[in-house]
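Q: How would the structure tokens look for this protein?
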Amino acid sequence: DRGWLSKTSSVQRALGSDYLPWERFLMSRFRCKAVFPRDTITTKILQKWSIPAFDLGNPMMDGIGFNDSCLVRKNNFDRELIILLLPGSRMPEAEFNWQKILAAVDNIIANFEKLNLVFLTAIASDLDMDSFQKYLIDRSWNLQASTNNNYPISDVDSLAFKKQNATLLLLTQNAYQNCLVKSDLAI
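A: Here is the predicted structure in token form.
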């Protein structure tokens, strides 16, 4: 724990939590038998308030179904490395993580020049895509005019960017499961 992120609100800092006092009150009542946050940091913060919080992983993964068709790529990306980028679902942490992830992506591109790379980015639906796009453009990624039906995910609202030997980087808010099953690894 290295302290608060720079963009954390003064209200959150003063309260010591993302949760408002009445939310913590309700979670700490005897009728609330357990709280299952999606990350370890939140679990530890809630436990400091004597809330019965348990760190059992991210529940978003529980509904993901896999079948044989998920394991077979049926497009022209068979010889490419597909990397999933997951910056998180809460601001300002997601934006902070996105900056770090893009630095890692730059290193991957520099160190694997001969490999065709595809980056899939699953952005939480309630986050504004503008800041994610801005950081890409600041790092010399070029927004493509239109989406292509040969992309490894099917989301007509996705945004495609290109840079150097990275075949593409897709931003999507509608294809989380599709991104998961199509990726070879994740950051």
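Helices lie at 10-15, 21-28, 40-48, 68-71, 93-111, 129-138, 176-182.

The CA atoms of residues 64 and 144 lie 30 Å apart.

Upvote if useful.
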